[in-house]
Design brief:
The complex is a heterodimer of chains A (about 100) and B (about 500). With about 100 residues, chain A is mainly alpha-helical. Helix content of chain A is about 30%, strand content about 5%. Chain A has a domain of about 35 residues. In chain A, strands 1-2 form a two-stranded antiparallel sheet. In chain A, a hairpin with a 2-residue loop joins strand 1 and strand 2. The longest helix of chain A is centred in the first third of the chain and has 18 residues. Helix content of chain B is about 40%, strand content about 15%. Chain B has about 500 residues and is an alpha/beta fold. Chain B starts with a helix and ends with a helix. Chain B is built from 17 helices and eleven strands. Classes of the chains: A mainly alpha (about 100), B alpha/beta (about 500).
């Protein structure tokens, strides 16, 4: 955490969000500021502490692998931004 | 008997009793509520969608069930649902442009259980976009005003549900609490806000923000109503593998009128003296009130709690960046065309998400990215362990913890323009969320803000160990009965509908 500067352009690319130059500057400053605040965690001795992902004890739950009724296809496809027959229509991703 | 406006200002328990005893029909209550909503909404703006047709249909069904002799715990009770919970056929937006037109194809378990208990879905309420915020100002779809002072925010993120309940546009509001999003708006709007233990209420159909923290709970005008709502919703759900299998004992029968035999921990690190004269005096009076009811006050320490906000603003954004990756313009929601498929993702998410959501996705993506994961995310998860350990230590010497619900009363629109100052709004609520603990905000007094004419409500937060909902609600009920702070200031219903 020694280097709190955040490369917003790179992170935005990972996050798949197009940002304007003005946003890059603003978010860069704001998130840099936030990272300064969270750097306070460096003061905690966490050497021998286990990480907590989930606070309430949980265990893996399995169910029988059988087909069950699910959402109606037409209802789901009705929400699609673009569809073609029974498919979601998306921009070409092969053969570019 | 026509459902008088007076009945709408009663508790959910009283409305349900009237409907079950057929002194009034669910249809009459629903029609009166819808009229109240029409009259009130121009001032308050609690709802994003009013479900008049669905509500009347549900009311007719409840009336049939009651006529057949069923007694329903929430018969005919007007229900406001935060707009991040699915209800079949209803627009479910999360306060976001990316879901502005999305119609839910299924019903969340929490809402389904409320309907099974007889509640009537009046509408879907405004919230900070994807539940990220503490004022409702991050909603892309509307402004909600605090019913006690229309120049102020209702709190957030479940501000629409809190405002609807405070303004008598519903008797019960469902909210979701990730770092304080039920308790803080509850405090700001002078109502009860209750977050059960993590996993007590199924998250199936709750649109995910931070999955290890999100929990559904009620906003109500009485603690008894919060208990009735909890009793209706809590319990294992096969559709949510993180919902806990622990049996749920109903909380409503455990409500009590005193605190004899209970040790209440006062947190050394949460000295209300830091909040200034008026707030300090009210919290000290609240603690003294607990003592008068028979509780023994003991000092406890949560040394790591001050790191709660820093811990939360790594964990919650990390989970959010992962959860919100699903909004890509392919299967549902907004799509904005791009040069190629990646361009479509980039443009869709740029146009669909608001400022705060983008900020959190970016910080979360950074915290999870290669080279930073251990320094940020894992370190925060370890801090989370220390915070949970602090609470375990404290509960060795007390049964419940009492502290402020928020550091100030409702603030004016635009007052927290710096993101970090808004994040600090959840200073007192985040530690409990990180530890998964049940916690409740109960009205504990009124302060006169220096920059306003209206007295504003503030909330006392009580928190218990994991699964101690019965004890917690029981104690909150005793405090509410003894103090009745809601009654000290006349409800504003008349003024709101003027």
């Amino acid at each position: 955490m020694s280097d709190p500067i955040i490369d917003i352009r790179y992170v935005a690319k990972l996050a798949q969000i197009a940002l304007t130059d003005e946003e890059i500057e603003r978010f860069g400053a704001q998130l840099g500021d936030l990272l300064q605040h969270v750097a306070a965690l460096e003061r905690l001795d966490t050497e021998r502490v286990a990480a907590t992902a989930q606070v309430v004890e949980s265990r893996n739950i399995l169910r029988d692998d059988v087909a069950r009724p699910s959402l109606d296809r037409e209802t789901v496809l009705a929400q699609a931004p673009q569809r073609q027959g029974k498919f979601f229509r998306v921009p070409r991703i092969i053969g570019e | 008997m026509p459902a008088s406006n007076e009945l709408l200002e009663r508790s959910a328990a009283e409305i349900a009793a009237a409907v079950n005893e057929r002194r009034v029909s669910a249809a009459e209550v629903t029609r009166a509520t819808l009229e109240r909503v029409v009259a009130t909404e121009p001032n308050v703006g609690a709802y994003l969608t009013v479900l008049a047709e669905a509500a009347l249909a549900e009311a007719a069904s409840v009336d049939r069930r009651v006529a057949q002799g069923e007694r329903l715990p929430l018969a005919g009770v007007p229900l406001a649902v935060k707009d991040n919970m699915c209800l079949t056929g209803s627009r479910t937006t999360c306060g976001s442009k990316i879901l502005e037109q999305w119609i839910a194809p299924y019903t969340s378990t929490a809402v389904a259980r409320m309907l099974a208990a007889g509640a009537i879905p009046i509408g879907k309420t405004n919230c900070d976009e994807f539940a990220m915020g503490s004022s409702c100002e991050n909603s892309a779809l509307g402004i909600t005003r605090n019913p006690y002072d229309l120049l102020r925010v209702p709190g957030g993120s479940s501000g629409g549900s809190a405002a609807a309940v405070a303004a008598f546009e519903a008797a019960i509001g469902l909210g979701s609490d990730t770092g304080g999003s039920i308790r803080e708006p509850g405090a700001f709007c002078g109502v009860v806000g209750f977050k059960p233990t993590y996993g007590r209420v199924s998250r199936y159909g709750l649109i995910a923000f931070a999955s290890s923290l999100d929990q559904i709970g009620p906003l109500t005008r009485t603690v008894e109503d919060a208990a009735l709502t909890y009793d209706a919703m809590a319990g294992f759900d096969p559709m949510d593998a993180t919902s806990v299998q622990e049996p749920v004992e109903p909380a409503a029968p455990a409500l009590r009128d005193d605190l004899h035999g209970l040790r209440v921990g006062i947190v050394r690190e949460f000295d209300p003296g830091a909040l200034g004269g008026a707030m300090d005096a009210l919290y000290r009076a609240a603690y003294a009130g607990l003592e008068r009811l028979g509780a023994e006050l003991v000092e406890v320490s949560l040394p790591t709690a001050e790191y709660g906000v820093a811990t939360y603003y790594l964990i919650a954004p990390a989970e959010c960046s992962s959860n919100l990756a699903r909004f890509d313009g392919v299967r549902y929601g907004l799509r904005v065309a791009g040069r190629d498929v990646r361009g479509m993702y980039d443009a869709t998410r740029a146009a669909g998400f608001g400022e705060e959501v983008k900020r959190r996705i970016l910080i979360g993506t950074h915290a999870l990215s290669s080279g930073y994961y251990d320094a940020y995310y894992v370190r925060a998860q370890k801090a989370r362990t220390l915070i949970a350990d602090d609470f375990r230590g404290a509960f060795a010497s007390c049964d419940l913890i009492a502290c402020p619900a928020a550091s100030c009363p409702a603030f004016r629109f635009g007052a927290k323009s710096d993101p970090y100052s808004m994040y600090l709004m959840d200073y007192y609520t985040i530690p409990m969320s990180l530890a998964g603990l049940p916690a409740i905000s109960v009205p504990c007094g009124w302060v006169q803000p220096p920059d306003g004419n209206e007295p504003l409500p503030i909330g006392l937060q009580l928190c218990g160990p994991l699964f101690a909902e019965r004890l917690l609600l029981g104690a909150a009920h005793a405090y509410e009965r003894a103090t009745n702070h809601r009654a000290t200031h006349a409800p504003l219903a008349q003024r709101l509908t003027a």
